[in-house]
Amino acid sequence: MATITPVRTAADHQAALARIDELLDAAAGSPEGDELDVLVDLVALYESRRHEIGYPSPVEAIQFRMDQQGLSPRDLIPLIGSRARVSEVLAGKRAITMAMARALHRHLGIPAEVLLQDPDVDLDDSLSDLEWTRFPLKAMARRGWIPDAPDLLDRAEELVRGLIQQAGGPQAAAAVRFRRNDHRRLNAKADPHALQAWCWRVLAEARTHSPTAPYQPGAVTPEFLRETAHLSQEPNGPRMAREFLSSHGIAFAIVPHLPKTYLDGAALQLADGRPVVGLTLRYDRIDNFWFCLLHELAHVGRHQDGGGRTVFVDDHSLRPRTPGPADAQEAEADAWAEEALIPAAVWQTSVVRDSPTMMSAINLAQSLGIHPAIVAGRVRHERGNYRLLSQLVGTGHVRQQFESAA
Q1: DSSP symbol at 401
Q2: Does the pTM of the predicted model rise above 0.70?
Q3: Rounded distance between C-alpha atoms, residue 126 and residue 182, angstroms
Q4: Treating both helix axes as pointing N-terminal to C-terminal, what angle do 237-246 and 286-299 enclose, rounded to 10 degrees?
Q5: Under CATH, which architecture does the 58-115 domain have?
């Protein structure tokens, strides 16, 4: 019988298993058979001891390090997140994300294999790096977007994740992430957390009031925009536009802006790819409504139908009066919207450009089948004079249509 050594390590274990495979056909009572019996017993003993020792659970490992280093749950906040998140992890109610595992391994020296052994570990939490307490929680609660509570900061992650779930979950929400060089038609002072929250609320509204028909990519063309623009001449044109878009599979939502967003509208997408147009009615005027709506629709037809999950958010007070080195996609959306509302060939020869009177504006609007506010808005924008034709722009006439229909 060959010399048999104890099975103490993983290498010993593998070697013993290999030798057992060689001896499986050994006759009972033979030297090889006796060797087989001894090896089987040694392997069984090794495996039973290893199973009994095992790894501690992730929570047990964290608590052990806390006891060793005299740490309190508060000390884990920089590694795990908010106080509420720390409590949930230590109570076993929240899985450890990859970001948490990296921080705990780096700062507490807990082995990665211990932290990641939990089958519920979230290895791909695309939202784990969000700074939950930086969202405008009080403003969101006042608007009813999240529940109001005295401990908003402590519950920030829970409440904001609730809004994200309403928006369609992490996949839809992760697309709405703003960096400094993105989306050039934004005020430099805009708060990216407030922008994200507003976009998530728009998506939540769009899911609640989903379109009545499927969306067909390629449906939004210059002709589609012109057809939409003709609805402006109707007394309830904005509401009719919402119904028209819904019938073509495009969700539409009016969501008031949050402080520090400087926002007029956005072109977004639901998780399934259906387009969403959101407006704030920051400037509650008929002319502003129709330009913003058509500009965002232009983004849908011109820039989103090609695939991907591009998001456009717009502060139209930054729209240049004359062509310049502006973002190409914003300039294209401007051109589509302007052409659909008042074709360039008509505008260049129009009397109203040189003589912006109420009558000339009304006459041009009637000839084009659009609301006079649109003509007035074009004059005011090009001249940079927002006192002109103010009686035509319909201040305060849009929001009330949607409030009365609610």
Answers
A1: H
A2: yes
A3: 19
A4: 20
A5: Orthogonal Bundle (1.10)
